[in-house]
Design a protein that fits this description.
Helix content is 45%, strand content 17%. With 330 residues, it is an alpha/beta fold. The strands form two sheets. Strands 1, 2, 3, 4, 5, 6, 8, 10 and 11 form a nine-stranded mixed β-sheet that branches. Strands 7-9 form a two-stranded antiparallel ribbon. The chain is globular.
């Protein structure tokens, strides 16, 4: 009886991986999960494909079949590329509607390699802390260098600091800056990176699925904010270590390469986040503060004859996609 109870206890985890034209990365991610799945019998993984149209479905399907992973991995091709929330929700919606839905859902990027014990650490943490709704991993480079993975919610103050990029201002705003320093101990945070984020089933039951009005970016921020407002705190767990090959899906957040021009959907997501959660007036104020501070940064760099480590045409793109020109359009 004890063994049966233990096995039932372990059959409560679903891992969701969303692929879009990253078949090789997805297969490597699945390979890193083999030992994690073996350590938790009953764990299932679903790979959804956002209509890649590049042979991803065939390649991933072949890898699943030839490696014998088909007893724990399911491939779910989707009819269109509806974005990050859409691709994850397709899996989550079906799983949550089951007669006996899993208790925990790990959203995992395809450009990740899971270190040994990382998944177990996340699940054990939520098992031990029933009042916590979300927990995220320590993301790191392949050499073990930590990436910032725990953040504060975006606000007027984070936009001011991000635009100015002045050390003194950052120190004065240390309580509000978006990305505080990496820590080595578990800690409560506002939100964690969606590259490796474990969510308790009751959180979905409280607030619903990810908001599909976001195509990409800000959806995990918004989700953690809604969870926070519903009384489900979010924590960061450095014991769970996951290699994150940053920006391999979109190329936008890859810090190892020169910055790329930000896509329109990034600006749309940012604007929608502020409009949805803070209203037009606050959004207009944050847009004005950001453009003013960014303009000062450009002027300072020009006077200093130093390059600006920012995406090309950031200021003009931001203005064209600001609430002043786009109004209340999310």
């Amino acid at each position: 009886m004890a063994d049966t109870t233990s096995q039932n206890h372990l059959q409560r985890l679903l891992i969701v991986i969303l692929n879009y034209r990253t078949a090789d990365l997805t297969i490597d991610c699945l390979r890193s999960l083999v030992s994690e799945v073996q350590a938790r019998p009953g764990t299932q993984v679903v790979v959804s494909d956002n209509d890649s149209q590049d042979g991803s479905v065939e390649r991933i399907g072949a890898a699943i079949a030839t490696t014998g992973w088909d007893d724990w991995v399911t491939l779910m091709p989707l009819e269109r590329n509806g974005g990050y929330a859409f691709g994850n929700n397709a899996v989550l919606r079906k799983a949550l509607a089951a007669l006996d839905p899993p208790n925990y859902y790990l959203l995992l990027n395809p450009d990740t390699i899971v270190r040994s014990g990382a998944v177990k650490a996340l699940v054990d943490f939520l098992e031990s802390h029933p009042q916590i709704g979300i927990v995220g991993s320590r993301l790191e480079d392949p050499d073990g260098t930590p990436q910032i993975s725990a953040f504060r919610f975006p606000s007027l103050w984070t936009e001011l600091d991000f635009g100015l990029q002045i050390g003194l201002v950052t120190r004065l705003l240390s309580r509000w800056i978006l990305a505080p320093a990496v820590v080595d101990q578990p800690c409560q945070t506002n939100w964690v990176a969606g590259a490796s984020m474990l969510i308790r089933r009751e959180v979905f039951e409280s607030i619903g699925l990810l908001d599909e009005k976001y195509f990409m970016y800000y959806e995990e921020v918004d989700f953690c904010l809604q969870a926070h407002r519903a009384g489900w705190p979010c924590w960061y767990l450095p014991e769970s270590r996951v290699v994150h090959l940053v920006g391999q899906s979109s190329g936008v957040t890859d810090t190892k390469r020169p910055p790329k021009r930000l896509p329109i959907y990034w600006f749309n997501s940012r604007r929608y986040y502020f409009l949805k959660n803070h209203g037009w007036l606050y959004t207009a104020l944050t847009d004005a503060v950001y453009m003013m501070s960014l303009s000062l940064l450009y002027l300072r760099r020009l006077i200093q004859r130093k390059p600006i480590a920012a995406p090309p045409q950031l200021l003009s793109d931001f203005f064209l996609n600001s609430v002043f020109l786009r109004g209340g359009q999310g």
